[in-house]
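A quick aside before the break. I want you to see a complete sequence-to-structure record at least once, exactly as it would be stored in a machine-readable document. Don't worry about memorizing anything.
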Amino acid sequence: MHFHIWFPNIFEMKGGIQVYSAFLLKALQSLYPKIEYNVFLKHDTCSLSNISLINNTKFHFAGKTHIKLRSLAFATQILGHGFWQRPNLVITSHINFTVAAYLLKRLTGIPYWTVAHGIEAWNIEHPTLKVALKNADRILAASKCTRDRLLQEQNLAPDKVLALPNTFDAQRFQIAPKPDFLLKRYGLNPEQPIILTVARLSKSEQYKGYDKILTALPQIRCAIPNVHYILVGKGDDRPRLEELISKFQLQDCVTLAGYIQDHELGDHYNLCDVFAMPSKFEGFGIVYLEALACGKPILGGNQNGAVEALCQGELGVLVNPDDTDAIAKALIQILQGTYPNPLLYQPEVLRQKVIELFGFERFQHTLGSYLEHYFQSI
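That is the input. The structure line, written in tokens, reads:
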């Protein structure tokens, strides 16, 4: 058996799609260690030691090609190797790659699977992409929400679209005291209530809701004067946030932490008292799972994939992401210990539940059942 795996990247950038892709590869390798894997990466330039490898996995990189020519170079690479090696299955972790997979299938009959993560798979209108999705042998949706939207919007066969929710590394994200080095870095004391958001600060991703938290902070400060908000991430939306901070005079209670090293992410979750990301277009939200694994109360938007990640409010607090007053009141309640969900204040139970529901073993078992059923049907 021989699989071709097409990823945007997994080594040199960390985002939701990259993390999901890395777990997908790890699960495939664990389930079928004797299969030969050729992994094609559009944007990476080399492999790094943060991904465990098995002997029969070979990586192909297109990231050194100039960005203007990279799509062409990558398409040439995946189609050329597909014609030459004739894999048993192509799996891609981004729906945009399905156009090439569809062409390969038309010419060679090679089946293909793809992954739909969230907003990139909603409201698709490009006719070629719609045809490519319709002809995919399976679509793995990173949330039931995305699966439902695909079925409704693209009129796909229900048995072709399967939910495979996000997962996380339970060994990496664990409950720990507030790290002293971060308290010193940000000039905070251990008793100070800390709100944390981790997100890309992009103009195209303002739906994450970090600006709503800034707008809610004056109200929160009235109830909790020493509250501090740490916003981790970088991007072209930062100047707008700096203007908001100045407008509401929040300079002394907000830290724009910028980019942090990947190995410090767990430390930042453990630094906070509540993780807040009231997003309104979230496909799922791996960050919710990571923070839950650290035993933290979560505030998320009551729309789309965040509802699934927080189990309809069982594992966190769901609010209207456009309602600044509701965001402020919920965060005040959480930080004051008065929110009417006792599970929020039981870190070990939160951690155990998120592992049971979304841990890697669950992810791998679900993927394995889909593949076994597929192989039996062909």
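Two observations worth writing down. DSSP finds 14 helices and 13 strands in the chain. The domain at 2-167+359-377 is CATH 3.40.50.2000 (Rossmann fold). We'll return to this after the break.
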